[in-house]
Structure formats: C-alpha cells, structure tokens
Amino acid sequence: VSAKSVGETSLSRSGINFSQLQMALQDPYANVAMIQQISKVLYHTNGVYYRLIEMFANIPMYDLYLSPTVIPGFSGKSNTVDKMNKEYEQIAQLVEKTNYKYNFKWFGRHLLLYGELFIYKVEDNAGTFYKVMPNDMCRVSGIMENNILKYSIDLSKLNDEELLSTMPLPIQKLYEKYNAGSLSNDEKLVDSYYYLEENEAVAFLYDDGNVRNKGVSPFSYLFDKLYRLDEIEDEELSNSSADNLKLVVQKPQTNEEGELLMDIDLISMYHTAVKKNLPKGVGVVTSPMPIEALTLQRQASSTLTATQKAYESVYTSVGINSEL
Q: What are the pLDDT digits (tens) for 99-153?
C-alpha cells in the first residue's frame, strides 16, 4: 500500500482530503463551514485535538465576584446596609439560577471548537437554559452596549419540521410569520436573515477583537499537522502489516530442463487448496522459479522518531509542553 493511498484513506474520514484542507486554510473565513466541520470531526476522532480543547476549556476557574456599584435608594437616612444585603441576595440568586459554572465551561469549549457561539436564553421559574443555535444558520449582525454581540438567523433553513420543533417558542412563531409572508416589510429581515434584537439572543466570537459575521476555531492552524499525524500513524500500521506478512512457497517439480512435471491445472488446484486453509497474515506463492526473501522493513526507531516528531510539532505549535 502506498503512502499516498494511505493518506487519502485517512483524510477521507472527515470527507475532506488534505488538498482541500490546505486550500480552505488559505482563507479560513471564506470557508467557515468546512473549517468548522473539520474541527468537529477531529474533536471526536483525534485524541490530541480532543485533549487540547478540553485542557484549554478547563483552565479558567469560571469564578464570579459580586461587587456593589450603585446602591438603589442611597440616602444617609435610609438603612443602606439592609438595602445592599437585599440587593446582594437577589443578584446572587439570579447568578446561581444561570448555573454559570457549568454553562461557562461549555461556552468556552464551543468557542474553541468553532470560534463562534450563538445562544438563545430560555428562562422559567425552575432555571435558565441556553439553547445553542446552529452555526450554519446564524451570523453576527450587530454590537450592543458593553460589546455584546447580536446575531441574525436564517429563517429559510427552518423549513425542516424536526429542526423547527427544537427551536425556542419565539423562534417558531417568527418562522410561522416568515412562512406566511407577514415579515416581508420588516426591516429586520434581510435576505431571509432576521435580526434578533431581544435580550435573549446573544452571540460570542473567540476573536472578539476582530469582529466579523462568522468565526473559526483558534486552533485551525493545527489541522494540517493533525492530518499529517493521522497519515503517519496509518502508514505505520500499513507497514507493520507488510512487515509481519508470512509466505508459504510451493515449488512444483521440474525436469532437468526446467519443464513442469505436473499439469498447470493440477498445480493451480494445489495452490487454491493451500490458500483456502491459510490463516490471516499468511500468503502462498506457487512458482518453479527460485524465491528470494526481500524486506523493505524500516528500523522501528525511524518510525517512532517520525511519529514523535509529528506529535512534538503539534504541541510546539500550540505552545504547550508535550509532557502535559
């Protein structure tokens, strides 16, 4: 098996070959869907990438501190301590209701994977739930106070009944209006994208210092190295199978002139009979010619070095010690 064919087989796991990846990485923001698809596949199939995402997502402590800035009804005659304590309790309950420790962690994981996050807050008396909106349906469309990003949703992609049923109720009602044509004069609708200005709809970009309408994983520069790593491992597996192959050699009898003493059909029957009873990893060769054993087996250390170098290249690029 050639290294080229092994590489093509490896890369096809994500439906994207190495050449396509290289082309996409030349302009990631013009190929957001492909870059995000690769990131998702690597997270679920590549242990190195998975551990990188999890490590960086879990480094922050995700702690919050409450600090009073404005005390409502402040007056020297009023009991400001009681007011402050009451406000503190209300805010603390609100923060606790958001389950921020859990939610902030998966917010971070999602941003590391895709470079963007579009959420819609659903709240009731029991708590707060953050619905992740599909990346391919949303784009950043505005910036509010405190650099909070707002987004638009492509209502035309909600024509799938199963997908629509997973959407928050306000989005379902919005789609019903869109489908009925009652949003045609709404200035918030642009090319089937509807601007969600309500407070429940918020977007995040990993690179918020360079606001675009879409985002990509901050680790996208590693994708070509991770693909190469898969290729090296597959080639090593292929070489290992070839190195361990055993052959049974059958040499039909010949006369002094080298002519076969058995009929060709009978020799073929012997060859087939032996072949059917051999275990996996053992082949058979039937030939009157002399057979010489040749091996292209590389030294184990050379393969190990190539694999180690590939791993070290990934860790060095991301700026962490491989021992971690």
A: 888 888 999 999 999 999 999 998 877 778 899 999 999 999 988 877 789 999 9
DSSP state of 254: B
pTM (whole model) above 0.85: no
Q: How far apart are CA 222 and CA 49, in angstroms?
A: 9
DSSP β-ladder status, 116-124 and 201-205 = antiparallel
Kindly report the CA angle at 70 between 68 and 76, in degrees rounded to 5?
105
Note the Cα 52 to chain centre separation in Å.
12
* DSSP at 140: E
Rounded distance between C-alpha atoms, residue 314 and residue 224, angstroms: 10
**Helix, coil or strand: residue 75:** coil
Q: Comparing 296 with 273, which gets the higher pLDDT?
A: 273
- 187-214 confidence digits (pLDDT tens): 999 999 999 988 899 999 998 777 889 9
Whether residue 113 contacts residue 53, with contact meaning beta carbons closer than 8 Å, is answered with yes
How far apart are the C-alpha atoms of 302 and 56, rounded to whole Å? 32
Burial track 185-224 (b if 16+ CB lie within 10 A, e otherwise): eeeebeeebbbbeeeebbbbbbeeeeeebbbbbebbebbe
Alpha-carbon gap, residue 283 to 143, rounded angstroms: 67
CA–CA separation, 87 vs 66, rounded Å? 11
Residue with tokens 């060769």: 285
